[in-house]
Amino acid sequence: MGFWQIVLYLSDLIHAGHKWQRQNIIGTNSERAFKLSVFQIVGCLLAGWFVYKNPSGVSDTAIDYLLSSLSIITGFFFAVILLSYDQFNKIEVPDRGATEEEKIKVLKSINFLKKYNALSCYAILLAIIVIFMLIGTLLFGQKTDIDEDFEVASSLENVALFPTLCFYALVAWRFLMIYFWFFRKME
Description:
Blueprint: H1 3-22, H2 38-53, H3 60-90, H4 100-139, H5 146-149, H6 161-186
Helix pairs in contact: 1-4, 2-6, 3-4, 4-6
């Protein structure tokens, strides 16, 4: 399996996860005008607040606990997805003589399992991303404190490109790590 094929599968998974977050079982609801949900806005605010209030980042002990819990949850979701796939194969498609109520019941069952599998796989993907981000945070060795390790330039001539890029990369890294962790919990 090539790299681009994996990227294609992951983009399909992300698309299905986003689609089924906003769709009901029957598929009759309309598109929302505002794409972000209240949970996503709260997740952004909490992640931003966390990065602002904890300039030294997440402690090693907290990272160890998060890694353990995310690994256990990811393993649990893998097992449940296999069980739900078995249930999906047991659903019998009604014949032409079936009533509309039976057809709707089967459609709801199929769509429920599709939604459950798509959202579970999406949660696993987010958990794996957070696991890699946490491992990357542990690999830095010493903690990087935003307040102590970076200075605010007094003029435009004093701005150094590399430390500025490192600062923004570190803030973005911490923000996304916390946001994905909150987002995975809220969905």
